[in-house]
Design goal:
By secondary structure, this protein is of the alpha+beta class. It has a domain of 58 residues. It contains 2 helices and 4 strands; from the N terminus they run H-E-E-E-E-H. The strands form 2 sheets. It has a two-stranded parallel ribbon with strand order 1-4.
Length: 83
């Protein structure tokens, strides 16, 4: 019984740690066959909303996204939208 409690506590700590890590914006990445991918889950399906505006968070995993990364081609566009 004690091992089960320790395992559950460890799982909770890992889940909370992952959730906190996703709050920090990470630069959107480019991978082969993907123009803009989430740096956490590598998903590309929900990077924009229905109006084709860039999302602040990944729609798959909830990672906060940093579109202003200088190496990303959409970075200029994202910066222009902020001003």
């Amino acid at each position: 019984m004690k091992k089960a409690k320790e395992s559950t506590a460890t799982e909770i700590i890992v889940a909370v740690s992952n959730a906190l890590r996703r709050r920090e914006p990470q630069p959107v990445i480019e991978e082969q066959g993907c123009t803009a991918c989430c740096p956490n889950c590598r998903g590309a399906a929900w990077m924009t909303n229905a109006d084709e505006e860039l999302n602040n968070y990944c729609g798959l995993c909830g990672q906060r996204l940093d579109w202003a990364h200088p190496e990303h081609p959409d970075a200029e566009e994202a910066e222009e939208e902020k001003t």
